[in-house]
Amino acid sequence: MSASPAASPPAPGRAGDTAWLAWLCASRMSFGFIFMAYSGAVPVLMREWHMSAGEAGLVHTGWHAGYLVSLFAVGFLTDRFGAKRVFLATSWAACASAALFATFADGFRSALVLYSLTGLCSGGSYTPGLALISQRFAPRRRGGAMGWYLAASSLGYAISLFAGSVLIALEGWRAFFYAAAAGPVLGMVIAHRVLRDSRNIVAVRHAGAGVLLSLVEVIRNKPAMLAIWAYAFHSWELLGLWAWLPTYLAAAATRDHGVAAAASIGALLSGVSFATNAVGSVVGGRLSDRFGRTAVMLLMTATSLFCSFTFGWLFSAPLWFLAGVAIAYNLSALGDSSVYSTALTELVPARYLGAAYSLRAVLGFGLGAVSPAVFGLVLDYATRASGERGTLAWGAAWLVLGAGALPGVLAIARLRRASAPPR
After folding, report:
1. Which runs of consecutive H residues, i.e. helices, occur in 256-390?
2. N or C, which end of the chain is more exposed by having fewer CB within 10 Å?
3. How many helices (H) and strands (E) would you count in the chain?
């Protein structure tokens, strides 16, 4: 383990940076395969496992709850042991948990337990990956680099859903789960290759700077906390979108197709939206390098809020139109994710960055974990009230995502006033 002073900036550019980032992104993309396995199969699983929308949403919540615990833990582990070491060590747990879920999930209770465990073991490729990029790239290139890293996640989600659109129809949901569980294995192999020659850097910390002191330092940092709260409300909207988009599109497709075919169509169209929103991550990061972080945050947030408030009420529109709105929705909802991550590296000293990411994980994924369950409960209630799962039910459910994300606009506006927008 080598130490590096917290204040030492990254080199302005190193030979092999592009190839290094490409391989790291490929690893992150592969770990992302398991993230959408359950979402892509929900339309079929609700019928075969006799789940209500509330129960289906609760499994999503279990995943996100486990994921937030994972992110909280690996943030502090990254500060203590270094990003490279944590990234590689946690990849083994991701592989094992994904295999358990794919093999033994056979109903609501087992899926809730095993998918929660999978989420608990899946955070090691996120926060340490961001820290690795922060260590390697200077601020003027960092937003774009982090944009590529988050874009890789979206590509992983898209590939997983594309596979699901074929496997669910041909071989069933179990085959889809096995294919998704192969992703973390591939990600682990790639990670060991790309990080083989990278140093394990641990930022120098003050004597006695433990978990509590690190958190206190972050909480006292007003601009950092505003960025964290903005991300938290953003996560409410984003994680709810990711959980229910395939099911919503599949429900629209059932107007002309059977359940299994509609599930495949929903997964396919959702995969298309994830593939295109990878562009949003990169463009958002690069725009923030040029025009400032908070300006891009406000633009993307306003666009995604408009989509949240209107998407469900378009349920009776043609499927091709819904797919187009889904692309715009995903582009804007994810387009500022890299910006939040980059801004935090510029608002928090390096020795506390892991703690900042951990606190952000608790607040962001805490709200995001609740969001899919609330969406499902509202969907069930509105369905009973209206007598059908139609426009009123879906409109009310999507409305919940927009309402929960609204306070994020205030946090971003206050961040602009609290400090000069980081560039």
Report:
1. 259-291, 293-311, 319-335, 337-347, 353-386
2. N
3. 17, 2
What are the structural domains, with CATH classification, of the chain? Answer: 16-198+210-418 (1.20.1250.20)
Of how many residues is the chain composed?
A: 423
Strand, helix or coil at 203? strand
Amino acid (1-letter code) at residue 116: S
The whole-angstrom separation of Cα 232 and Cα 244 is: 19
What is the C-alpha separation between 304 and 105, in angstroms, rounded?
Answer: 34
One digit per residue, pLDDT tens: the chain, 423 residues? 333 333 334 444 454 788 899 999 999 999 999 988 898 898 899 989 999 988 998 998 899 888 888 877 887 788 788 889 899 999 999 999 999 999 999 999 999 999 999 999 988 888 888 888 888 887 777 777 877 888 888 889 889 989 988 898 888 899 999 999 999 999 999 999 999 888 887 765 554 456 677 778 888 888 888 989 998 998 899 889 988 999 999 999 988 887 778 888 888 888 888 787 777 767 777 777 777 788 888 888 899 999 999 999 999 999 999 999 999 998 888 777 778 877 887 888 877 777 787 788 788 878 888 898 899 999 999 999 988 888 999 999 999 999 999 999 999 988 887 765 444
What is the residue type of 45?
L
